[in-house]
Design brief:
This protein is mainly α. The protein has helices at 2-21, 27-42, 46-63, 69-85, 88-105, 111-126, 130-147, 153-168, 172-189, 195-211, 214-231, 237-252, 256-273, 279-295, 298-315, 321-337, 340-357, 363-378, 382-399, 406-420, 424-441, 447-462, 466-483.
Length: 484
Amino acid sequence: MGDYSKAVEFYEKSHKILEKALPSNHPDLAKSYGNIGQVYNNMGDYSKALEFYEKSIEIKEKALPSNHPSLATSYGNIGGVYTDMGDYSKALEFYEKALKIQEKALRSNHPDLATSYSNIGQVYNNMGDYSKALEFYEKDLEIIKKGLPSNHPDLATSYSNIGQVYNKTGDYSKALEFYQKSLEIKEKSLPPNHPRFATSYSNIGQVYNNMGDYSKALEFYEKSLEIRKKALPSNHPHLATSYSNIGQVYNAMSDYSKALEFYEKSHQIYEKALPSNHPDLATSYSNIGQVYNSMGDYSKALEFYEKSHKIYEKALPSNHPSLATSCNNIGLVYNNMGDYSKALEFYEKDLEITKKAMPSNHPDLAVSHLNFAACYEKMGDYTTALKALKNAYQIQQKAFEEGNPAFASTYSRFGRVYRNMKDYSKSLDYFQKCLAIFQRTLPERHPNLAITYSNIGDVHRLMGDYEKAISFHQKALNIQENVQ
């Protein structure tokens, strides 16, 4: 926090000197406003960031021709703030303004054009429009490939962006392929303990975490942490990110004491390094809340989720996706506590925000409907649960290719609801669809496989096929014994 306030103080002193020495529409004043805006953006104070970026652009619009590249830079900066605020339509509006200027003013393979394509790709990625994201990231890559040497670090970034899209769509082999390409370039062009290696190792760790290969995930996250420890000061936010990533893996492994240990290390850094209403602090409280929720300590979970929610309410616009996630988290706790009316109240808030903030086929909308389904299932209202599941499934069909890992959870929930409704053939069909995805995408001893074998065994028991029931329960037991 101290570094940011010092930076603002320094830039504001500098700005006062410039204001006395220069005419009010001088480009150096615009640059000065831009510098102050950037610091506020890094602090997570987005309204202040916008205020100063807009002052900067006001001067540039008067002082420069309408197709000047410096105007494009300013539009890009404002687009970046709107991206961080989760206002993706506004972000696109400003990034596209920047792009139009650059397309007129710059040669077709200019690096600034690549940056604009990458920025637009990032917005589409955040919006869950992965085909559009890939389209723009590939345009970026094309320019970078033509304009820069084959071992340039910017090429590594382009490959990494494409890897991120494949990771989000559950195409983990493709994600690893592009992250590996990115890493290979860095190995040729950078010293061995450069912070950019930490980013690569972290990205690869995230893919393995999503695949359920937790030992591999830890291996790469720990490599990332070691580099950051050597390269960065002890209170740097990137170190906090590394601790948080490791905490996430331990949480997935159900090692809750370890998860808390790493999440708390992360949180201590954020408290020192960031202002008290920074969104990253809210995320940190949320992570700790998630562990307490998994441990069944619901009062503690609510305490941390509510701390997180208060920061988001102060720091973010009312339709930001992180606020939706926050409502969802609080709803999950009430659902686990058996307070279904409260759970539904927060799930409604989540859905309302997500509908405003995201396109109609965004995967987060499917998650909202899945949560409704889980709640209605627990309430014994299977008809409404099925309706919510069908809504989720329709969204996933638009967002993903058939067989995507995201479908596994949906199939499993269909299986549970049909089992409760005593429609055992349908239940079995959905559990088997779930199993097929897990067998293809998860390590062979993953706990989710054990749960699915157990579910299939249970349906066979209910259908009176005890031999098959024993066979599937034995498969589940074999995994559970090995995990323990």
